[in-house]
Amino acid sequence: MSSQPQNRRQFLKNSGKAGIAIATMPLITKLAPFSITEYQQQALPYAYNALEPFIDTMTMEIHYTKHAAAYAKNLADACVAEKVDTTNTNLTDLLKNISKYSVKMRNNAGGHYNHELFWQLMKPAPSTAPTGTIADAIQKQFGSFANFQTAFSDAAKARFGSGWAWLIVKTDGSLAVCSTPNQDNPLMDIAETKGFPVLGIDVWEHAYYLKYQNKRPDYINNWWNLVNWELVQKRYTAATTSK
Ligand code: MN3
């Protein structure tokens, strides 16, 4: 009997430690994987309602559990059919050689990579303006942050039908805004403008239609409140220091 309080204290101490470990894990998951390497869909780094009011809960849930999940599933099927060893094939390398594979592989490898990146590129509002070397590079390339936002938003608005707009680092280290159709991305060897994507926005109707209907420009304008500039900086650093 007399040992119980001691055990209880010990229990609380231990469970307290475990609590810290558990609480820290999602944070690490959120910060670490800034390169997209996994072929399986990863956990969303926030709740479905975390991006309200700019992206509504139902859109996030359907987008993640139905659309993005389907790309991951169909990518897995394509990898089996086309004998891609997913353990030893870097997902980025697969995209860089996508012309050697089927249309199914192109659509779903792109769809999977793009969405895994997209979830991470957003975070609950408010988004703070970029700082550091990415802010300097944007200033240098576009003249001002406002000019960059206009160029990026215009690319997103002008994409006819479904697709994405991107901020990329080109092979010479400079920044550029571009857009891709469907689930293509700038890593692909078939892309019109190639580079490493540091920021991207999904402008498929499934990304915004429930809340915004035909008003894609309103979705784009609001989306700026969600940009995870810390991750954009990490990806920019990775792209400009690995060469
Ligand atoms: Mn989508």
**Order of strands in the sheet with the most strands?**
2-1-3
Query: What would you give as the CATH superfamily?
Result: Iron/manganese superoxide dismutase, C-terminal domain
Q: Would you tell me the overall average pLDDT?
A: 88
What's the count of strands?
A: 3
Report the sheet-strand fraction. 5-15%
The radius of gyration computed from the alpha-carbon positions, rounded to a whole number of angstroms, is 20 Å
Walkthrough of the structure:
The chain has 243 residues and is mainly alpha-helical. The chain has one domain (1-26, 51-243): Iron/manganese superoxide dismutase, C-terminal domain (minor pseudopilin epsh fold, 3-Layer(bab) Sandwich). Helices cover 52% and strands 9% of the residues. It has 9 helices and 3 strands; from the N terminus they run ααααααβββααα. The structure holds manganese (III) ion.
Write a brief structural summary:
The protein is mainly alpha-helical and 243 residues long.
Q: What's the topology here?
A:
Layout (H helix, E strand, L loop, with lengths): L3 H28 L25 H25 L9 H6 L6 H18 L11 H11 L2 H14 L4 E7 L5 E7 L14 E7 L6 H4 L3 H8 L5 H13 L2
Antiparallel strand pairs: 1-2, 1-3
Helix pairs in contact: 2-4, 5-9
The site of manganese (III) ion has 7 residues, from helix 2.
Q: Which properties best describe this structure?
A:
three-stranded antiparallel β-sheet; 9% strand; minor pseudopilin epsh fold; mainly alpha; binds manganese (III) ion; disordered N terminus; globular; 243 residues
